[in-house]
Amino acid sequence: MAQFNENENEILIIDDVPENLTILTQMLAKQGYRPRPVINGEVALKSAQKTPPDLILLDIMMSGMDGYEVCRQLKADKRTRDIPVIFLSVLGDTENKVRGFEVGGVDYITRPFEVGEVLARVETHLTLRNIQKQLQEQNVQLRQEIIERKRAEEALHQTEGTLQQRTQELTLIN
Question: Is the peptide bond before 53 cis (omega within 30 degrees of 0)?
Answer without folding.
Answer: no
